[in-house]
Amino acid sequence: MAKTILLVDDDELMRRSLAYNLAQAGFDTQTAATAEDALMVCQRERPDLVLLDIGLPEMDGLDALKELKGKMNVPVIFVTARRREFDEVLGLELGADDYITKPFNLDVLIARIKVVLRRHETSPQLDTTSHRLVVGDIQIDSDAHTIYIHNQPIDLAPRAFDLLHVLALNAGKVMSTDELLAQVWGAEYEGESQVVYVHIRWLREKLEQDPSNPQRIVTIRGIGYKLIPQEA
Question: What's the chain's average pLDDT?
Fold first, then answer.
């Protein structure tokens, strides 16, 4: 059964062109020009994934993402002309599953859509076989999708959660950027190291007492990153 993609963009030409290309790739496509219309569509008939522009009239994409994540568990990929790192980090904080900036390669976008859909579909099955992981004072429960530090809950966006989980499974071991990309994002992201840098910085903001002088997630210059367990 074809997956349904909701494309939200105020550029009519962009909507028509991308909707056509997504249909050619085998997806059912719905479109909306505003965030308000998109939310109404989602309430009426939940799509399998939302492609969401940030720069929308009235309610922007960031506010729409809050609504989408607060009311339903639908994966969201930002498709935006904005290149400011602030938007990328804020979108990840609010729970976006991925982002891609315009202009983009259609094949790259479709590959990322498939990755997010696959991750969204497989995560429940993975959760049923996972176990509670304790690394120093960090407790990760994949069944409940929760993280605690010193028994205090830490709220992480889905991809940041996955990144921390991979680092925790390899605690004390240096993980290269390429390894992290492959294990957390998939082979389609080969060479896109900036994605890892953004998420590492966001994790440090959440986990470190002094993000500018990290003690948990340390950089091994020229190699990658390592999670160092702290005393419980």
Answer: 84
For CATH 3.40.50.2300, list the domain ranges present in the chain: 4-124
For 148, other C-beta atoms within 10 Å of its C-beta total 14
Confidence of residue 126 (pLDDT cuts 50, 70, 90): very low
Say whether domain 4-124 belongs to CATH 3.40.190.80: no
Selection from 1, 4, 52 nearest residue 28 by Cα? 4
For the stretch 156-173, pLDDT in tens is: 888 899 899 889 988 999
**Global pTM?**
0.59
Q: Which two tokens stand for residue 169?
A: 């499974």
CATH class of 130-227: mainly alpha
- What pairing do the DSSP bridges indicate for beta strands 4-8 and 49-52? parallel
